[in-house]
Amino acid sequence: MPSFSGQGLGCFRGGRLVFANLSFALQPGNALVLRGPNGSGKSTLLRLMAGLIQPLEGRIQWSDSDAGITDDPDLHYGRTHYVGHADAVKPVLTVTENVAFWARLRSPQSDVAGAIDKLGIAPLADVPGQFLSAGQKRRVNLARILAVPANLWLLDEPATALDVDAIAALCDAIAEHRAAGGMVVASTHQNLALTDHAVLHLSDYITEDPALV
Amino acid sequence: MSSFITILSRDLKLAYRQGMDSVMVVMFFVIAVVLFPFGVGPEANILARIAAGVIWVAALLASMLSLERLFDADYEDGSLEILILQPITLEIAVAAKVTAHWLTTGLPLIIAAPVLAILLNLPADGFAVLISALALGTPSLSLIGAIGAALILGARRGGVLLSLLVLPLYIPVLIFGVSAVDAGLGGFPFKSHLLALGGLLLATLALCPWVSASALRQALRS
To answer: Is B87 helix (H, G, I), strand (E, B) or coil?
Structure first.
């Protein structure tokens, strides 16, 4: 299983340097929790890792590829699941249709029903997205990443709007994913019950260098 | 190819369940055309003379009306972000979305056009040319429009901006579309006009998905 790492990352957003000289490394089975106050760049770092934006400096790559993730995006996208702030649930599609659409784009074989069941939304399988609460929509979005396996999960505040049971289901899913050699990077203000995870404090990387700012 | 079918069938399903979009586009088309006899008077000769132009201009405006939502709905609910992060070719995803757009807005216009042509007293020998010209021209409208729809993501008052971006690019399609019908009515050969429309379609097909996809990537980087 390949590992995933980034070296010397700096990111410039909205006219300021969000962080600089940030490095991380994930081995198979590892979990990294991003912490820091609002605006410290947790979401930005996750979007960098996802390949949605490019770093100002530094490089993110898989251990078995010489190319950075933005140079070989299809390899990276196929290995990565990203869960952002928006849940991408279509109001007129049912829960199953929403999950199945994303699953089918990645792989003809997927376990949509199993994923829906794991997050406790099986009774809602035929309910259109417009009738779901915020927490239920979040569960649908998380079911999307369970339906087709991928090496790396990038979770941006995954526990937002989730109740206690759903957070437990999410933690179980993460544990199962890691046991199979998967990696997780999550930003969170709540305490996800993850075992032996590393923590990255983004406030350590805020640069005050006037030459850079 | 399977991603093309997956996205196409999902967009068609969305359009079918939301329903109103296609109906509104056709209604707009019909109403815009029906306004002309009131504006220029009911003289049959004048209406027959302007029928092709009126139908084409109304079709352009109607097709543009629905373009704003082509990517915007996916952009707002986060689907576009996730779509870009799938291991699929984004250009194919764009082509699928444009195809769905044409099937739900362009095709109904072609079906409604003969009825409006009768209303405007278009001579019977112009019908076949009008339908062929619309069938070749409206896919180009959706393809060109996709570039504008991708460029306006995140912009305020995107609809107005979209029309400023897209309408000038529609002019070649309009010119050949109308002149094909005029040639047909005058008894001249119209094949070359239809070939020009077909050429435009091939050119937009080869170009627009790529331009539109890079505009989408750009929109999500900000």
So the answer is: coil
Nearest partner of B87 among A114, A51, A83, judged by Cα: A51
**Six token digits for residue A10:** 């700096």
DSSP state of A203: G
Question: Measured between CA atoms, how close is A64 to chain B, in angstroms?
Answer: 18
**What CATH number does the domain located at A4-205 have?**
3.40.50.300
Nearest Cα neighbor of B109 from B47, B145, B58, B71 is B58
Distance from CA of A43 to the nearest CA of B (A): 13
| Nearest residue of chain B to residue A52 (CA atoms) | B221
Nearest CA in chain A to B9: A101
Q: Which helix (H) or strand (E) covers residue A98, if one does? A: helix A95-106
Contact A90 B2 (CB under 8 A): no
CA B174, CA B186: separation in Å to the nearest integer?
A: 18
Residue among A75, A88, A93 whose CB faces B82 most closely: A88
* Spatial contact of B166 and B66, defined as CB atoms under 8 Å apart: no
ipTM of the complex: 0.89
Q: For residues B203 and B141, is the Cβ–Cβ distance under 8 A?
A: no
Q: What is the pLDDT of residues A169-195, one digit of tens each?
A: 999 999 999 999 999 999 987 777 787
Tell me how far CA of residue B210 lies from CA of B46, B64, B99, B105, B142, in angstroms: 43, 20, 15, 22, 14
Q: What is the pLDDT of residue A213?
A: 44
**Closest Cα in chain B to A55:** B221
Average pLDDT over residues A88-95: 92
Domain map (residue ranges) of chain A: 4-205
CB atoms A90 and B78 under 8 Å: no
CA distance B202 to A162: 49
Between CA A87 and CA B136 the distance in angstroms is 38
Give the A-side interface with B, CB within 8 Å: 50-54, 74-75, 77-78, 80, 82, 84-90, 92-93, 97, 101-102, 104-106, 108, 144
